[in-house]
Amino acid sequence: MGGYYRPKSDNPNAYPDRMVAAFHGSFGTTGGTREVLAHECTHQFEHILCDGTAMQFMVRPPWWVEGLAVYFGDGYRMDKNGKLTIGIPRDRLMMIQRILRSGQAPPISRFLRTDLGQYQRMAGLTYPYGWSLVYYFLHRGNGKPVEINGHKVDLKKVFNQFFKVVTAKPPQLMPQQYPEYYARKFEELLGFPVDELTGDWKNFILSLKLEPLGEVKGDTFVSDKLAFEIKKPEGWEFRPDDVQGQEAIRIENPATTGRVIVIAQGNMDLTTPEGALEQIESQAGMRLRSPTIDDSKIIDVYGFPAAEVYYSGYEAAPASNASRKVEVRTNEQTYRHVMVVTLKRLYEIIMQCDSDRWEDNEAAFDEILKGFIPKADKK
After folding, report:
1. Residue ranges of the chain with pLDDT lower than 50?
2. Sequential DSSP letters for 181-197
3. In a domain? residue 379
4. What's the mean pLDDT when you consider all of the chain?
5. 47, 112, 172, 177: least CB-packed within 10 angstroms?
6. CATH of residue 282
């Protein structure tokens, strides 16, 4: 859990009245303390706007409550003049696009009718799904009517009208009746069944682009957002347009079958180098069918401890919910998988090639690892 907002209690003797708490540090690919605070403070702002008691705040539509918090919290950007702007939260977009491509997203009508308990049990789906609906309603058409499935509708206007419904004092109902009440109110404002938006919503969300995590400067890829840089050897190419999921950058040499992937995530669980070894060995079993662990040890990378594991085997088929078509190499692969452990972040440098081409890539892998500079704990 990155943080939480505790509403003002209905008990006048309760203390404290309200509380916003946030994890301090980096987590996920692009999350941090400021994003969590912005997310949780959005909940506080929602509660201030919503008429009624703490219990009445809790019956508001969870997709609206969390969707707006992700929109303003995870998606906020500060420009060079200190002005707050709204962007696209990379981690949430990546997740909802994967869910949509897998065909596992529940119908919009069902999602609008989830109560708080159901919403919490849906785990990783709830935040990206809720955000995707809020972003779609506010940005599809940019405040102008659009033709969707035979209906001409201004989605932003509908959402703003629904905003007034949600923030008004709710009627006296049984707790289990509120999801249906708010879903029907939304469909009344929309003017037709909400599931008729499904195709347009999916196409809109899938058309959004993941935010680049860095830029190529000559023979170096620099990521200020993730606080690292890495150099490529001569003859190798950066492939920023081919990154998938949580990858920050790819470096490849088709002539030698060499490939290097860099992933950076927050060290939210304070992973140790020994724990990193266990993580890599677990990942080996997901990347390869019955992998062989050839070597496993703790090394030093730019003054930081790092786990290093060599393993080999044949690649496994991609998961059915892969975010895009994934190439599966048919030749046996050898991996040199390094996880650099810093206080704030974990950096993975995943080097691989066809096993029979290892000697053609070994020196380049050494050069790439020496050219990796983590900056997460830089003062």
Report:
1. 1, 26-27, 29, 320-324, 379
2. HHHHHHHHHHTS-GGGG
3. no
4. 87
5. 172
6. 3.40.1000.10
